[in-house]
Write a structure and sequence with these properties.
Structural class: alpha+beta
Largest sheet: 5 strands, mixed
Strand content: 15-25%
Number of strands: 17
């Protein structure tokens, strides 16, 4: 009897609520895309993707990304989708339809081949051996020799800031691949606005303590927690590039409002022969023929030798691959300049099942995740007055210990497979300035790791350093004429 009464009351409620069936009908209709709606210029892609296009690329999404813009459901619309049509793997197929000459030439540029980075590292560890090409670089699941260890380092740690990889997940480093890395606006990837590279495009790769950040006067702080300051309301400041920095004196050209591409023209990147470099004489044609300002000759000095305000001296760069690192050992070094490493260390620290967690990093060239993390640290990371070196040809340049590297590998069982592998060959430069370093007892070991460097910290010439360089050029000139 109670059950029957309940049913009767339910029917009475539905009878009084005449609007309820209509509300349910309208709700279902609003949640289901109407098949009567016409397909617009961009298809139904804009139903989910609120994109912004520039006028030169204002055409249907499927022209570059493929897929099917007439479908309603994701799995149907994304069938055959090309996520990054401007990447090195797809640029010939898509970008070259309109930009044939540019795509053909950039394939031979240093930004695509990474010939400089690969050659320096490979030549230091394996002197006399031909370095692999970019297409030969790949991640190694379990390195069994030093060559595989170095290759894994290049594929997963060193080469993450180039056109084969879309960047770390920090706001300042997320970018497109291939052509889009330089020509698409940095930020949300829905913003498909292409144009001339801005400084933001350049700094999405050229950040941290390398050429680019020094141009805007930034010095990357060391990784340990003690160096991370200042604090705002008890919390660390934002890190759009994944690291924190000290604000230094910017380059005089940056203070004058010059962008990177005002000096580094397109021909430096889109060229058949990747040898063209920017020259200061392109603008400073009024320079006299004084020693040090000559274009050619055995005795010469780079412009930064006298004009650089400061440089970077990273002493002892330690790179360790650990297949199962203890997060407690790295809690004060979780800021590594890598969003992958930082996320793994944060997620695993304090977790109940941390011992079962298997960390991994991606192959930045070919894709795919591989076991282990490449962790990094320095014995000392400081900005410093410039250090000058002299090579056998008589060239004077600013020096930096770019090859002061040490590689180690600890597998998932905790066994040390490789310990403190060091470069076997140096560049053969002699440190000559300042004198207290040049005459030190570590002179031989220091010069083996130092390479010429072009800090973009140009200011008015340093007087004392210029006098020293002038004297050194005269000595070099006298030796030349003997």
């Amino acid at each position: 009897m109670v059950h029957i009464k309940g049913q009767i009351e339910c029917l009475r409620f539905l009878a009084r609520s005449w609007w309820l069936p209509w509300a349910l009908f309208l709700l279902l209709v609003s949640c289901t895309p109407s098949r009567l709606n016409p397909v617009g210029k961009y298809g139904r892609c804009v139903t989910c993707h609120q994109i912004r296009l520039d006028t030169a690329h204002d055409f249907q999404c499927t022209s570059c990304h493929r897929g099917d813009a007439t479908k309603y459901f994701r799995n149907e619309a994304h069938k055959g989708l090309v996520k990054s049509p401007s990447s090195p793997a797809h640029a010939k197929r898509f970008c070259a339809r309109c930009h044939t000459r540019q795509v053909k030439s950039i394939e031979k540029s240093l930004h695509y081949t990474l010939k400089g980075e690969i050659g320096q590292v490979w030549g230091a560890f394996f002197p006399g051996r031909r370095p692999p090409g970019i297409r030969d670089i790949r991640a190694i699941e379990r390195p069994v020799n030093d060559r595989q260890l170095v290759m894994d380092l290049l594929a997963r740690r060193c080469l993450r800031c180039h056109v084969y990889y879309g960047g770390d997940s920090y706001s300042g480093t997320m970018r497109g691949k291939g052509c889009a890395a330089c020509h698409m606006v940095i930020g949300r990837r829905e913003n498909h606005v292409f144009g001339r590279p801005s400084n933001s495009n350049c700094l999405s790769c050229h950040y941290a303590n390398f050429t680019g950040w020094d141009y805007v006067g930034r010095f990357e702080k060391d990784f340990p927690e003690d160096f991370r300051a200042p604090l705002k309301k008890g919390r660390h400041i934002s890190r759009p590039y994944g690291v924190e920095w000290l604000q230094m004196t910017p380059d005089v050209h940056e203070r004058a409002g010059l962008a990177c591409i005002d000096c580094h023209k397109g021909k430096e990147f889109h060229m058949e022969r990747p040898t063209a470099t920017v020259s200061c004489r392109g603008c400073h044609r009024h320079l006299s023929n004084r020693p040090g300002h000559r274009v050619s000759g055995r005795c010469r000095a780079d412009c930064q030798v006298c004009h650089a305000a400061w440089s970077v001296r990273d002493k002892a760069r330690f790179l360790m691959r650990q297949d199962r690192p203890d997060p407690e050992d790295w809690q004060f070094l979780e800021v590594q300049g890598s969003s992958e490493v930082e996320k793994v260390l944060r997620d695993s620290y304090g977790a109940e099942n941390a011992s079962l967690f298997k960390p991994s990093m991606s192959d930045k060239i070919n894709g795919g995740d591989y076991p282990g993390l490449w962790l990094e640290g320095f014995e000392k990371r400081r900005w410093t007055p410039v250090l000058l070196g002299l090579d056998r040809s008589g060239r004077i340049a600013v020096m930096r210990p770019l090859l002061d590297l040490s590689l180690s590998y600890v597998d998932e069982t905790g066994e040390t497979i490789f310990d403190n592998i060091r470069p076997k060959a140096g560049a053969g430069w002699q440190i000559v300035y300042p004198g207290r370093i040049a005459s030190g007892v570590y002179r031989a070991s220091m010069t083996s790791f130092y390479l010429p460097y072009h800090p973009h910290t140009v200011v008015a010439a340093d007087v004392s350093r210029s006098i020293f360089v002038g004297r050194l050029l005269k000595i070099c000139g006298r030796k030349k004429h003997r």
